[in-house]
Amino acid sequence: MELLQVGRRLVGLVILVGSLMQTQTVKAQIAMTKYLTTYSQNFDALPASGTAVWENGTSTLIPGWTVQRTKSINTITANNGSNNTGGLMSYGATSSTERALGSIGSATAGEFAWGVTLQNKTGTAITSIDVNFWGEQWRVSNKTAPQHKITFWYAISSDNASFNLSPASDQNWIEVPGLTFRSPHFLITGTILDGNATANKQQLSGNLAITVPDGHYVMLRWKDADEVEADHALAIDDFTVSWNTAYEPAPMPVELASFKAIKAKAGVELTWQTASEHQNDYFLVERSTDGLAFKSIGSIKGQGTTKNRQVYTFTDKTPDVGTLYYRLKQVDEDESFTYSNVVQVYSQLLSKPLVYPTIVSQEVYIAIEQPQHINQLTILNKAGKTVLTQHSKVGEQTYTINVADLKAGSYFLVIMNGSGKKQVRRFVKN
């Protein structure tokens, strides 16, 4: 009898432990309700000293928030900026309860992503969300490290378990460059910073014109990659999100079945299909380079009222370089309108310019896959001072810079296109 009771207790314990483990891996979410339309997080629940456990894929410390690393490490460390070891960090002044969530990427600690999951429980579709947060820098790593960043992304799904937060993959995520936090300080001697000081932080905000159907989930994601040189200490703080719904939900005048954007030789080809239309006047095609500010680039006449499937195409023949974002503004005959979801296209034209040789005595060459408008080439020394600037011609694929007069040492080549986007490559002058 005693053996039987012990066995039953062991079985019960196994069931309880298994239940706890399953609960720990479930992603919690924040409810987006009809009457409570704002959520805020100040991260002050993070440890003010020592370390705490925050396992990958769980909301251990802050409900609704999940972290993911590329390495099997489960700790978060309180840091005032003096510690430059890689890891997930709770930043703030020593022993202060005012905290910020950040990280330092490295080969040992890996790369990091963290995010918050929200579920639409308003009873209707959410038509846009407003995002606001502060980016903070708590340390400069060293004087040879260029500007680093934390990027912002979002994804929408009917299944909470479908989100892949891993920083190793960007599949199914939409990046919003306008919400990227870039380190205010770089290419200077390594030093501790007060991330709460005005000079060391930046407020970022934007409106995401996205549609989240009732019952669906939206996940907001920040990604800290392991970048060139030792990483600076970057974090986010004082996050707020609010959501907006249509005040008088009505049947959609146009039932959009699909909307796709594909990079082609002629430009970017947009294709969309409607399952039905009611008093549809026309579509405006809108483009953005940052995912926030959109401009109209053309229009396509609608089919009025029809229950038959319609296919539309539009080619953007003059796309900008880099990541492009597109949406449709569908306008009715009474001039009312609705927006589609946003689709994006990754342009590879300037993503990986080839700079050679990396050890040079006379000339540096820059090669790109297709003719593009590289507006300016700038060379910085290790102190971040501009030592050479060269403006470029439109349509070239190979650029040459004479560096024979530069002193021996390490330099950074900043490649800027016509849209103001920059890429940095390092070379050594012997």
From TrEMBL:
Pfam families: Por_Secre_tail. It comes from the Bacteria. InterPro entries: Ig-like_fold, Secre_tail. Residues 355-425 form the Secretion system C-terminal sorting domain. NCBIfam families: Por_Secre_tail. This is T9SS C-terminal target domain-containing protein. The lineage of its organism: Bacteria, Pseudomonadati, Bacteroidota, Cytophagia, Cytophagales.
